[in-house]
């Protein structure tokens, strides 16, 4: 029998709700909440190791004991040794000798580093932790050996904090982020959480991001800008300071976005003084893919590194649907050209196809992405995954895992293989999963609150033409809040798989409650915030709802991560769940 921290049904739901209400009000799954938990856990461990009387105290006692802790004054320099890398990507250090019984949060550091850090009164802090400035590295951790961060803004920009770690260590760290998320946020007994899978890496570790949003601040009305003024910094936010860092080049962005950044920087420099307000500029990549006929492919190979390869479009064959769902590897040649002075294009030639990349800064423009055989058109400002290089591996993995491989045991104890014929794609965006997985199901229904995203999903269903034998598409899409999918589900729950891929805040309690009431046979939960994912998965495993309506519970089959965001502290979590049949 599975052990649970909360009893099933209404009593458990009420107890969990009361517990959650009694917690301090911080945004769930936010970096500061994650720091609170990880700093408290580290303090508890270190105090126990020191043999203090903290051994028998629970977390709340620790919080109140550290509330009396004196914090060092502003501008104090501290020599610290980093103990742990937090899930926020910061080093955590403890300095008990100085009477500061708290954790110092040091950016740009890794376990084993000895650093000089400095306190700053403007940095946020809490009872358990205090953010400090990194001043200099006194002695590096062996983890840093042989790694040079590729970004010239490393150490100032808030973006890519893990650049000093070898890629394999970044992946290992991301596995621990998922482990800690399930430990601290799921409220589940550890026996209910399977060992977390190894994180699957990204083929591109730099130059992968297909969307960036640099910004600049406005000026005060009393000091209006005038023509000829120095342009304000245009780039990304500095680490731990609400100021913008001027950025000329972003090494995690794709090459075409870096070409675009030069153009957008010039536009900002030419026009900023006309208004007093700041602005955020969107740069999103778009790709035109053409399959090469065999003679063109031979010609393209011999024209390696020649600009001519970009102009062979007219004679190219067009059957994209035969391309394999895999990362194509490095191009055989690359060429940069300008169709107009301010419209850059980069053409990448592969053995069997050619990609021409452009970018747009127009929110209302349509952009196109190709993932193996699939073509997705999306509004530039609507959601689409930002790392195209990992998507073929990711979609293949999901396709291989969605249908149950092992037989299930029915309520009467018989073994059988569930027949899953239907897919509900909740938070479907422009149809990434629906379209790539349509061939596995008799019928697919996607839902998203972004009406324009749904318009694109319908268009994408037509472009990719996943027709059934009778000539009817098996894909349907609804523009509405995700809970609406349960109003009148056209599929029997026993034969349905539900994919959930909500925004960072996770699924709404109402959505989870209705999901448990409907009870699809299998659930795949994908998320860019593994903390809210762990919280929501915990609820599905515990079971929601009360006596008034039936509620199914789930067990976790598998959980792991994909590195959609190399060099950063983020990871995409994927969790497979099966309905528990003992009702
Ligand atoms: C992380 S994206 C996933 C999109 C899609 N699955 C993909 O991978 O391209 C989250 C999506 O949730 C949608 N969304 C946000 N709140 C929603 C809600 N209350 N109901 C339905 N969709 C919502 C957003 O519009 C966005 O498309």
Automatic annotation (TrEMBL):
UniProt feature, compositional bias: Basic and acidic residues: 12-26, 44-63
Domain of life per record: Eukaryota
Alphabetical list of Pfam families matching this protein: PrmA, tRNA_U5-meth_tr
One GO BP annotation of this record: tRNA processing
GO MF annotation: an example: tRNA (uracil(54)-C5)-methyltransferase activity, S-adenosyl methionine-dependent
Classification via InterPro entries: MeTrfase_TrmA_AS, MeTrfase_TrmA_CS, NA-bd_OB-fold, SAM-dependent_MTases_sf, tRNA_(uracil-5-)_MeTrfase, U5_MeTrfase_fam
Family matches, as SUPFAM superfamilies: Nucleic acid-binding proteins (SSF50249), S-adenosyl-L-methionine-dependent methyltransferases (SSF53335)
EC class of the enzyme, as a word: transferase
Keywords from the named record: Methyltransferase, S-adenosyl-L-methionine, Transferase
Family label: Belongs to the class I-like SAM-binding methyltransferase superfamily. RNA M5U methyltransferase family.
PANTHER family in the record: RNA M5U METHYLTRANSFERASE, TRNA (URACIL(54)-C(5))-METHYLTRANSFERASE
Name listed for the protein in its UniProt record: tRNA(M5U54)methyltransferase
Organism encoding this protein: Cladophialophora chaetospira
Organism taxonomic ancestry: Eukaryota, Fungi, Dikarya, Ascomycota, Pezizomycotina
């Amino acid at each position: 029998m599975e052990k649970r921290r909360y009893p099933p049904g209404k009593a458990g739901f009420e107890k969990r709700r009361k517990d959650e209400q009694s917690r301090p009000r911080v945004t769930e799954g936010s970096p500061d909440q994650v720091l609170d938990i990880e700093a408290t856990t580290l303090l508890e461990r270190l105090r126990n190791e020191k043999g203090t009387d903290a051994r028998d105290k629970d977390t709340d006692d620790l919080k109140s004991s550290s509330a009396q802790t004196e914090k060092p004054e502003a501008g104090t320099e501290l020599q610290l040794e980093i103990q742990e890398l937090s899930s926020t990507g910061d080093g955590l250090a403890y300095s008990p000798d100085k009477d500061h019984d708290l954790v110092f949060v040091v950016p740009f550091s890794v376990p084993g580093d000895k650093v000089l850090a400095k306190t700053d009164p403007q940095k946020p802090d809490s009872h358990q932790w205090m953010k400090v400035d990194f001043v200099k590295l006194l002695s590096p951790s062996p983890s840093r050996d042989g790694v040079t961060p590729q970004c010239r803004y490393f150490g100032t920009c808030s973006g890519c904090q893990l650049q000093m770690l070898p890629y394999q260590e970044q992946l290992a760290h991301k596995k621990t982020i998922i482990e800690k998320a399930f430990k601290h946020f799921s409220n589940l007994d550890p026996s209910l959480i399977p060992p977390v899978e190894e994180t699957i890496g990204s083929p591109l570790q730099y130059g992968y991001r297909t969307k960036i949003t640099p910004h600049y601040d406005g000026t005060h009305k009393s000091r209006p800008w005038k023509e000829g003024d120095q342009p304000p910094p245009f780039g990304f936010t500095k680490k731990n300071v609400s100021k913008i860092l001027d950025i000329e080049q972003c090494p995690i962005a794709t090459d075409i976005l870096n070409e675009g950044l030069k153009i957008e920087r010039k536009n900002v420099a030419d026009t900023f003084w006309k208004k007093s307000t700041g602005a955020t500029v969107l740069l999103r990549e778009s790709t035109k893919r053409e399959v090469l006929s065999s003679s063109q492919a031979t010609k393209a190979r011999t024209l390696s590194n020649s600009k001519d390869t970009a102009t062979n479009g007219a004679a190219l064959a067009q059957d994209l649907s035969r391309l394999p769902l895999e990362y194509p590897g490095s191009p055989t040649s690359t060429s940069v050209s300008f169709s107009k002075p301010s419209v850059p294009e980069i053409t990448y030639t592969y053995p069997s196809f050619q990609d021409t990349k452009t970018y747009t800064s127009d929110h209302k423009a349509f952009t196109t992405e190709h993932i193996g055989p699939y073509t997705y058109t999306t509004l530039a400002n609507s959601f689409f995954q930002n790392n195209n290089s990992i998507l073929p591996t990711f979609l293949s993995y999901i396709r291989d895992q969605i249908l149950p491989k092992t037989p299930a045991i029915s309520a009467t104890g018989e073994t059988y293989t569930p027949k899953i014929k239907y897919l509900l794609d909740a938070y479907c965006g422009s149809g990434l999963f629906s379209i790539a997985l349509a061939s596995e199901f008799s019928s697919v229904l996607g839902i998203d609150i972004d009406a324009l995203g749904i318009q694109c999903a319908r268009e994408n269903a037509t472009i990719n033409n996943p027709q059934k034998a009778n000539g009817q598409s098996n894909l349907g899409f609804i523009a509405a809040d995700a809970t609406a999918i349960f109003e009148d589900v056209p599929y029997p729950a026993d034969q349905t798989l539900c994919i959930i891929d909500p925004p960072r805040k996770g699924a709404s309690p109402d959505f989870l409650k209705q999901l448990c009431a409907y009870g699809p046979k299998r659930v795949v939960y994908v998320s860019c915030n593994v903390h809210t994912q762990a919280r929501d998965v915990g609820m599905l495993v515990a079971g929601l709802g009360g006596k008034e309506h039936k509620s199914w519970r789930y067990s976790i089959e598998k959980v792991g991560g994909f590195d959609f965001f190399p060099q950063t502290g983020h990871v995409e979590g994927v969790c497979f769940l099966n309905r528990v049949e003992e009702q």
